[in-house]
Structures are given as structure tokens and as C-alpha cells.
Amino acid sequence: LGTQKINAQGHLEIGGCDTLALAAEFGTPLYVMDEALVRENCRRFTQVFTDRYPGEVEVSFAGKAFLTMAMVRLVQQEGLALDVASGGELYTALKAGFPAEKILYHGNFKSDEELAMGVAAGVGRFVVDNPYELKRLSELAAAQGKTQAILLRVTPGIDPHTHAKISTGQEDSKFGISVSSGLALATVQEALSLPGIDFKGIHCHIGSQLLDSHTHEDAAEIMVGFVAAIREATGFVCTDLDIGGGLGVRYLPSHNPPSYEEFADSVVSAVVGALEKHALPFPRLMLEPGRALVAEAGTTLYTVGPIKKIELAERTKTFVSVDGGLSDNPRPVMYDARYSVLVAGRAAQATDTTVTVSGKHCETDLLFPELALGEVHSGDILAVQTTGAYNHGMASNYNRFRRPAVVFVHDGQADVVWERESYDDLLRQERLPQRFLEE
Ligand code: LLP
């Protein structure tokens, strides 16, 4: 996968760097990103769509999957647009020098402060989630003497059959405005008439970690049908059509997501077929992959600590504890997520024994309840694969853990792009009012 290989010592190597040397130099837990693979993914994802779609294509990286200033720079260098979902993500992107006109601003509740910040910065598109936001944005933009380009997020009303916590296309989603109820059309009509608003088109995001393209095909058809309905009702022809992110990745050998090529084949033929059916011109086709660009490029390194063997009637259960857990990867606890794991120093060994890997939180934070790992000893380094998406970004300080460093590896070089937090970082927000200082 990417630049990963097993070197002459039998160690896992990424980007030309021995993972044991990385662990020794930067400490663990450590997030390692294969920079070449991220860059290649950005290019290939864009290429497969521009090769197939007759109109303009814009691919935005969904920053929520993994956002640091270095990543923002990389996204810009590779020519992608950027999707942000909060004032904090927007601020990070702007501070890294990302061009505001290539930013899409998402979220189901943007505060007045966030709306004003985005308008002032000149964000390319707001993806407006609801009629309340539309009115607030109109007022704020008009107050700044500006006209803000927007997309309207709609719910196509389809169930993507992924984990319930990451399904968003169904009718009862908290995101977007229902197409079938007629509310979406009414909101489009309002958007077309409001001052300060330049309505460009529609957006949907149906869910995440989708392992086939059917739901995207269905969504594409419904979305294009809605573009036709808008033209019918108002005469306005959308120039933008955004079908969100959601393409899944291979966490386990049993996962078989479509390749980029297969995904683009399905999506583009569904979009083009529907456009032709309704005799519509080709809008700009927009996509927002997050996980599919970065997940497989990330590996988390942990040090193995105490190993406990518990004798049960039918078998011996082996608990292998690692020096991270819930705070650097909440996904197993939140979504029952599973990963492939190697012992970094014996990367080719047989995985003939099963263990339970737990974190070091005051919590039963099982990272892997049943993991075929093979021989393992205290002091070994474990390499958890496919942790490049929604790991660093979802990390917390629970139990006052310091969030791990992130290194980008590339051609034998490792650069820290996010420093491991220090104990003092943990105290940076602390304030002690005088009465707490008195004896
Ligand atoms: N666009 C929008 C509007 C989104 O809400 C999302 C993800 C994406 C794009 C990117 O989706 P992707 O291509 O990465 O599937 N924390 C969860 C995933 C939450 C996804 C939220 N929205 C996880 O760890 O699985």
C-alpha cells in the first residue's frame, strides 16, 4: 500500500523511513502520514473524474478527515479545493494561506460569528443547510455590502446502508432540507429572491465509508431530477452540482470499496445519464472526498506495555495494552471500527494468535477486541493501518493525555507537522481565580 514495505530487517517501512526508528525518534503514539500516497490520491481522484465528465470538475478535500496546516498546503499544491465545516477549520485554512475562493463552508449550524467570518474572508461557496441559515447569511452578507455564492444542502432521502452514526442521506437526517417534502424547492425559491445571496446549485452528502456506488448513483439521479424541477419551477438552471464525499476504504482485507475508476464510472454515468434525460447542460460536478484521500496513507504507531493473560474455562484471553487508545482513536468505541495491525519490528510474521488490544485510558477502550496478531511482547511497536482519516482530527485529551505528534514521511525524510502536546499545553487554558489561591 502506498510506499509501505518490509525492509531487510523485517521492519515496516513507510516513505523510506523505518517505523521503529520513527517511534524511537518521535515517541509513541505517533501518527505517520505517507505524503506521496496522499499526493497521488489527490491527483488520481481528480484525474479519474476529469477524464470521464464532459463538464468542469471540482474536487474538494473534506478537511474534517484530516486537517493540519501542512495538509492545507498540500491540498493547495495539488490543486484541489477545500471543504471546511467550522470556524476553526476555516481559520486554519486561511492561516495556511489557502485561497478563500476555493473554500466550501459546510455545517448545519454556523454561528453569526462564523457566517460573518466566512463572508468577510471571501469564501467561494457557503453550503447552506437550512432556511434559518439562509436568512442570517443574507442579512450578514447584505450588511457587509457583499453577495455570497451558495449551494443548498438537500437530503435526497436515501439510506446509504453504512453505520447509522455516519448516515446522512436519509429523510430523517439532521442535515439538509428534504427534497420530497417540497421544502427544498421552496428554499431555493427564497434563495433566488434574497438580497446578498447568489444561488449556484445544490449539494448532498449521503453518508461515509460507503463500500459500493449504488447509493451515489441513486443520489445523483435524484439530485439531477431536482435540478430539473428547479428549472421547471423557476427557470433557473443550476451551475453547480455537488454530490459530497463518502467513498469508503479498505480497513480490513474483507472490505472491497470501489476503486477510484469504478467509483467515477458509476457516478459520472449516473449524472450524465440523468442530465441527458432532462436535457440539462453540464453543471460543474463537485465532489468532497475525505477518507478516500487520506485514510490509507495514515499509520498509528503504539508501544506495547503490559500483557495480561487471563485463564478462562475455554481459552486463555490475552490483553495487550498500548500507550494510546480512546483519545487518539475513538473510532472503535464509536463505530465498532476495525483495523489491520502489524508488529512493526516483525512485519512479515505469521498472525497465528489472537489477542485483545486495549488502550491505557480509565475506560474499557478496546481498540481491537479480537485481533489476529501473532507473537507480541512488551516493548514491541504496533502499527495500526488506515488511520489517516478521522483519527488526529477526532483526538481528545481525555484523562489529560497529550495528543500525539503527526509526522509526514517522504523519501526517507520525516517532518513533524503537528507537535506532540506537552504537559504545559494541557495547562494553557487554566485560570486560578484568587480565592482558589488562598490557603
Ligand atoms: N462532505 C460532507 C458534507 C461531509 O459531511 C463529509 C463527512 C464529507 C464530505 C467527507 O466524507 P468522507 O469522504 O470522508 O466519507 N467521523 C466519522 C466520519 C464522519 C463523516 C462526516 N462527514 C468516522 O470516523 O467514520
From TrEMBL:
Modified residues (N6-(pyridoxal phosphate)lysine): 64
Limits of the Orn/DAP/Arg decarboxylase 2 C-terminal domain: 31-388
InterPro entries: Ala_racemase/Decarboxylase_C (IPR009006), DAP_deCOOHase_LysA (IPR002986), De-COase2_C (IPR022643), De-COase2_N (IPR022644), De-COase2_pyr-phos_BS (IPR022653), Orn/DAP/Arg_de-COase (IPR000183), PLP-binding_barrel (IPR029066)
NCBIfam families xref list: lysA
Keyword line: Amino-acid biosynthesis, Decarboxylase, Lyase, Lysine biosynthesis, Pyridoxal phosphate
One GO MF term attached to the UniProt entry: pyridoxal phosphate binding
Species name: Armatimonas rosea
Boundaries of every Orn/DAP/Arg decarboxylase 2 N-terminal domain copy: 38-295
Family indicated by similarity: Belongs to the Orn/Lys/Arg decarboxylase class-II family. LysA subfamily.
Role, per record: Specifically catalyzes the decarboxylation of meso-diaminopimelate (meso-DAP) to L-lysine.
SUBUNIT field: Homodimer.
Superkingdom of origin: Bacteria
Active site: 362
Protein name: Diaminopimelate decarboxylase
